[in-house]
Amino acid sequence: MSRSIMAAAMVALVVCCSILPPANGHQAASASAVDRADYDAAVAKAISFLRTAQGSDGSYSGKSGPGFTALVTTAILRHGRTADDPVVAKSLKNLEGFVQSNGGIYAPDSRIKTYETALGLVCFAAANRDGKFDKVIAGAEKFLKDGQFGATDGTAKSDPNYGGAGYGGNTRPDLSNTSFLLEALQAAGRGPEDEAVQRALVFVSRCQNLESEINTTKFATKNPDGGFFYSPAGDGSSPAGKNDQGGLRSYGSMTYAGLKSMVFAGVKPDDPRVQAALKWLSEHYTLEENPGLGQAGLYYYYHLMGKALDAAGQPTIADAKAAQHDWRAELIAAILKRQQPDGSWVNADRRWMEGDPNLSTAFALLTLAYCRPAK
């Protein structure tokens, strides 16, 4: 066992709050810390904004393809609306128009077919009642699995691309799209025993700044802080840049994506990879920015944070000074204070399209669904 693996195994002794088994549904935030009336009012105002922002064809930001429509519709569904809601029904009809003969859910000229299909599958699964969308979900699942590196293209397990998913076609795989793939597979009912899930876990593990049995990539020991970066494929990639040793810097949104993905893939709470990720997240706990990237991708960061900590069954999280935080209550407060007068959210840093209020509002609503306080 290498020194880095031994060190990672020891962080369980210093991480102040351990991961519990995956939660059955979303847990409630502390009732004493959150005003449920304020929460409900913010959600209602946001959905009202989205009702007015919907295009006549049922789409949201239609020129951006079906991905935004799927995200917004999923967000509305997660707050108690059903497929019979007129706004939801109109969007679902729009999305059905993007279902292709190969099972994918994308515009014919799309360059981000995997991304759009994953979001579409999650949306149809959230809306599915009495098997109405079973065929669509099954087709999308097959399309996603066939496009995964190492599934049908002969990519060897030793290849850094193995198990990953990119935006579509033969594009470089990355952790963001691979985490969307895993979320889609979970929505389709696939668990850790699924071969595609286990392939994805190999890629996810190689996106972590931690040497392990399956992560012996050239980046594993150059910045061994336990966090996650965007992709080890090719020359590697991290929007947070590289350190002086050529290591890829970790950042907040991808570290939560890594944690979430490991939970979905059945990695145990005491696994060195999980403990190292938790240690990094504790040391960089903040709701004021996306650690490592400032304001860029802030709402995506919030979404991944809520999803990951909820999936991990984590009621609190420690910060760098070992103070415990009710992350649900704090995340609600951080989001509500940023809501615009019209009910939307928008990021002044327009990177990754968060200048579009439809996208940022979808991420904010999805985040709030993982933080719902008790009545």
Commentary on this structure:
The chain is mainly alpha-helical. It has one domain: Glycosyltransferase, CATH 1.50.10.20. It has helices at 3-10, 36-53, 66-77, 86-96, 113-127, 134-147, 175-187, 195-206, 252-264, 272-283, 298-311, 327-336, 357-369, and strands spanning 317-318, 324-325. It has a two-stranded antiparallel ribbon with strand order 1-2. A hairpin with a 5-residue loop joins strand 1 and strand 2. The longest helix has 18 residues, at 36-53. The protein is globular and about 50 Å long. It starts with a helix and ends in a 6-residue tail after the last helix.
Quickly describe the structure:
The protein is mainly alpha-helical. The protein has helices at residues 3-10, 36-53, 66-77, 86-96, 113-127, 134-147, 175-187, 195-206, 252-264, 272-283, 298-311, 327-336, 357-369, and strands spanning 317-318, 324-325.
CATH domain fold name: Glycosyltransferase
Radius of gyration, taken over Cα atoms and rounded to an integer in Å: 20 Å
Overall 3D form:
globular
Name given to the CATH architecture: Alpha/alpha barrel
Taking the sheet with the most strands, its summary is: 2 strands, antiparallel
Report mean pLDDT, rounded to a whole number: 91
Strand-pairing-aware structural class: mainly alpha
Q: Can you count the helices?
A: 13
Strand order of the largest sheet: 1-2
**Poorly predicted residue ranges:** 1-29
* Number of individual domains: 1
What is the string of helix and strand elements? HHHHHHHHHHHEEHH
Strand coverage percent: under 5%
Helical content class: 40-55%
CATH class value: Mainly Alpha
Distance between the termini: 49 Å
Number of strands: 2
